Predict the 3D structure of the following.
Amino acid sequence: MTLAELSPGQQANIVEVRGEGALRRRLLDMGLTPGTSLLMGNPAPSGDPLCIRIRSYVLSLRKEDAAFIEVDGVSTTGSPCGDCYRCSRAPRQERGRMRRGGRRARKRGAL
């Protein structure tokens, strides 16, 4: 199974990084090394790029590049990574208009 085939909230281990030349070197330099555990976050609304929590950071990766990474040991967790803005926000949550604080707002009676 490849990284591009994982669903949000699934956890897996990297088995192999395929590809050649600069692309493979770039993926390895980003920390996508064999034996590393990762957690799949929610993708962008268009489905590309993917949000991946790996090591101690969140990585955005194109589906085209994620297809070069073989994963194994897939397990499902309760929720996506929760670190990036897209994963931490509730789906389709409408936010109300934010009011400005400070002296000007108090003067106008906004607060």
In short: The mean pLDDT is 78. The helical segments are 21-29, 63-66, 85-88, 103-108. Residues 3-85 form a domain with the SH3 type barrels. fold (CATH 2.30.30.90).
